[in-house]
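hey can u check if this looks right to u? its 132 residues, i copy pasted from the old doc so theres a chance i mangled smth
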Amino acid sequence: MKSSTCLKIAGGFSFFFFLFHIPFYWVFNWKESLSCLSADNWAIVMCFNIITITLLFFMAYVSLFQTADIINSRLGKSFLVFSTGFYLFRIAAEFIFFDEPNRIISAVIITLCLIPAIFYSIPLWLKNNLNS
């Protein structure tokens, strides 16, 4: 499989997750459900979600529209390592922080995160794609 194809697939998943995170405030009723947090902790959760949304958009944009730069540069290799790690850490977080009763939801999230992790990592293993 070509590196550019892998990046387009991974970028599509990152774009999906970008869109998925935008409505969290409303879908999970954070105004009410997070009201038990201190103002500082509430702000931390909100900032983390906004940062995650921004990061996912960046990952999607770069993957979809800067493919050649990713494939042909050392900085691109760093981007691929980071993006792979981002999704692998999200998978680990699913096991660490989420309860057992949500097994079906967890399985879906793990699968949806594993796919871009794999596709971001494939170009790292293909020969003659990245400068060393």
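The chain has one domain: 3-125.
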